Amino acid sequence: MELRDKNGLTEAEFLAQYDASRFERPSVTVDIVLFRGDSVLLIRRAGHPSIGKLAFPGGFVDPHETVEEAARRELWEETHVKDILCKQLPVQSKPDRDPRTRIITVPFLACMLDENQEAKADDDASEAKFWKVSAKDDGKGIAFTLCREEISFSFEVERYTEEGMFPGVFSYRVVGGESLAGDHGEILARAWDERKK
User: Fold this and answer.
1) End-to-end CA distance of the chain, in Å?
2) What is the pLDDT of residue 2?
3) Which end of the chain has a smaller Cβ tally under 10 Å, C or N?
4) What is the pLDDT of residue 1?
5) Residue 25: predicted pLDDT
6) H-type helices in 34-166, by residue range?
7) Are 180 and 195 in contact (CB under 8 A)?
8) What is the CATH number assigned to the segment(s) 23-196?
9) How many Å apart are CA 56 and CA 79, to the nearest integer?
10) Residue 149 bridge partners (DSSP)
């Protein structure tokens, strides 16, 4: 006997009349925070939004793939790096995090299985380079400095606890300095903390 809902519909009947456009659907992206020793892989965005800014490799999840598959595909398409180990981090879901539309991103902390791989920019990245990362952590926040050759910049990220969250579960916000594109400074801080565990 098939189960019916309160409207007397079987699952097949319900799905046949279901209108997916009733609810606004956010887009889903992935971002990959790939460490090699004391360096992290950054791309320079070749297009809008945040054109010319440094960011983590990443992009939109295709309908036929998992977020893990999307992370590996996007990393390869933008940097020609593969053979990684990765771990999913908590999603970044602030409604205004991207100016294009409602986009939720699933970030990944990753490390290289073969550290001799070189990054090569492709797709929508105009540059793909490893940047040396140093950080000063006072427990309340992290002051990051990223350096490559003669270029360096610094920014600070504050840790805070949102109401209703378990103790020790932090959210992050950039509070000073020239940061990465969008909320990627916050993503770096979360990955930095997770990497220390």
Assistant:
1) 51
2) 87
3) N
4) 80
5) 86
6) 67-79
7) no
8) 3.90.79.10
9) 10
10) none
And the tokens for 156?
């600070």
> Which of 168, 131, 174 is CA-nearest to residue 33?
131
The reported pLDDT for the residue numbered 83 is 92
- Residue given tokens 């939004």 in the structure block: 49
- Give the HSE-up count for residue 79: Cα atoms under 13 Å, Cβ half-sphere: 31
Look-up of token digits 């050759």: 149
Token readout for 99 is 């100016």
3-state secondary structure of 72: helix
| Cα 180 to chain centroid, rounded | 12
Residue 110's DSSP bridge partners are 34, 86
Residue type for position 101? T
Beta strand spans in the chain (E): 27-36, 39-45, 54-55, 58-60, 84-88, 103-112, 125-137, 141-148, 151-160, 171-177
- Give the distance from CA 29 to its chain's centroid: 7
CA distance 172 to 157: 6
CA distance 79 to 127: 8
Burial class (CB in 10 A: 0-12, 13-18, 19+), 96: exposed
| Rounded to 5°, angle at Cα 109 from 35 and 188 | 75
Residues taking part in catalysis: 127
Which residue stretches of the chain have pLDDT < 50? none
- 111 CB contacts (<8 Å, ≥6 apart)? 34, 35, 36, 84, 85, 86
Q: What is the DSSP letter of 166?
A: P
pLDDT at 177: 77
